[in-house]
Task: structure prediction
Amino acid sequence: MVPLRRWSSPAGGPGGRPRREAPAGGPDGRPGREARHREPLRERPHPDEGLAPITRVGGVSYDLVIVANRLPVDRVELADGTKGWRTPPGGLVTAIEPVMRANHGVWIGWPGGTDPELEPFESDGMELAPMSMSAQDIEEFYEGFSNGTLWPLYHDLVAKPEFHREWWDSYVRVNERFAEKAASLAAEGATVWVHDYQLQLVPQMLRTLRPDLRIGFYLHIPFPPAELFQQLPWRRQILEGLLGADLVGFQLPGAAQNFVRLVRQRVGHKTHRDLVYLPDGRTVRAAPFPISIDAAGFEEMARSDAVRFRSAEIREALGRPRKVFLGVDRLDYTKGIYARLRAFAELMGEGHIDVEDAVFIQVAVPSREQVEQYRILRDEIERLIGRINGDHGRIGRPAVHYLHSSYPREEMAAMYRAADVMVVTPYRDGMNLVAKEYVACRYEDDGALVLSEFAGAADELRQAWLVNPYDINGMKSALLEAYQADDKEVTRRMKAMRKQVTQHDVKAWAASFMTELSDVGGGHAKDVRAPGGE
Result:
C-alpha cells in the first residue's frame, strides 16, 4: 500500500503563493474558533457586488473541492459518433453547482467504466476532475465493500453483508487515491466536502495530508445503530476516518446520535451531545441535515404544457381508470417492491379494488444487474407481477404495469401528475427523494402519499399515510384508506406536505451545511486522553 504523503508546497502556499498568516489561539498552532471563523460559502454573487475574484494558481488550486464517488455527468455518444459529457437533470448537482461557481470549485469523482485516467475538463461551466477505476476496483471497492458490505449493513441488514479482507484493502486503496487527488487540487485553507459511504476514510486521510483544510462529510444513506455497526471488522477505522472531518452530516438526528455514541464506546473519545473532542484539540460536530429536492424546478416542470399533456396521455393509455397507483424505485432489495405489490394483489383478491377501477404502475430502475442478488430480486418481482396479472388482469387491462427502465425527469413528472396514490415503502432509506418529488409535482394539492415510516422522509412528511412495510395487513389498510379518501382529506394532507417540501429545498440544505461547516472545527481546552486500541 502506498503510504500517504503529508502535503507541502515550496515557497509558502500552493503554487508558490505566500501562505496566509494564521491567527494564534487554537491548539497545536491552529487558530481558535472565533479566529478561524469565515464567512459561509455563498450562492453565485451578483456581478455588481464588487467581490475580488478568486485566483486560480497554476491551474490546479481551488477554494472548494467536492469529493464524491461519481461525477455529476454521464458519458454519452454524440451525434457525430464522438464521446461527450451530459449533466443529468436534478440530483446533488442542483444544490452544489451554484456554490461551486461562486467559490471557484472543482468536483472529483469517477465517471463510470474503466477508462484510463482522464484529464480534468469543464462541463456546463463546472470544473471536473475524473478518477479512474480498474475492473478490480469496481469488483472489490464498488460492488464489493461499498455495496456488498456497507450498503446492507447500513440498511438494517435487509440482506446479509459480506466481510472480505481483500474488499477492505481495495476500499482503503481507492479512498487513498481520492484523498490524494483532493489534497493536490485544494488551495491553502480550502473547504473540502466529501460525500457518502464509499469514501468514509477520505476525511482522515485528507486531514493527514492537508491539516490546513476545512473538511465536511455527508452520509446520504442511513447510519446504523451500534448493535449492527459493531459487526463490521473495520468499525474503528471507519469511525476514525469520519473523525477527520470538522462536520459530519447525516439525514436524521438518530443517525448522528448513533455515530457519537459509537465514537464514545468504540474509540474512547470524550463527547457531549453532538460534539466529539479529539486529543489533538479539534472538535468534530455530528448533526442532521435532511436532504431535499429542487422543489421549484419540479413544480415548474409539472405545470408545463408538455408534462400536463403527457400526464393525460398516460391515463388515456391506461384505460382511464378512476385511480392510478404508482411506485418508482431503483431495483433494490431495500425498496420493498415485492411486499407492496403483494399487498395490492391481496386487496384485488379480496374485492376491495377492481382492475376496471384501478391500476398499479411500478417503475423499477435497473440497478447493479451484474450482481447475482439483484438478478434474483428482479426474477422474483417479475414472477409476482405475472401471477398478479394472470389472476386479476383482463384483456387490455393488466392490474400492474411494470416498467424496468429509467426515465428523464419530464416523464417522471408526468407520471407523478398522472398518479392518484404514490406508494413509497422501503424497508430502510436515508431519505427517499421520490416521495418529495411527487409532493412537489402536486401543485393542485391533490394526490395521496403512502410512505414507509422507515424512510427518512417520514420525519418531514408526517401527513402521509405512514406504514410499516413489514406489516402486509397494515400496508393494505393504508393503501385502501388512501384509495378511498375524500378530496378534503387528501387536500389537507397534501397542503401540509407541500409547505414542508417547498420551504426546505435542496438549496436550503446545501446552504445550511456549508454555513455550519464555516462555523465548526475550532479547538477546545478540554483535557482529553488519547484512546486506547480496541
User: Anything to note?
Assistant: DSSP finds 17 helices and 18 strands in the chain.
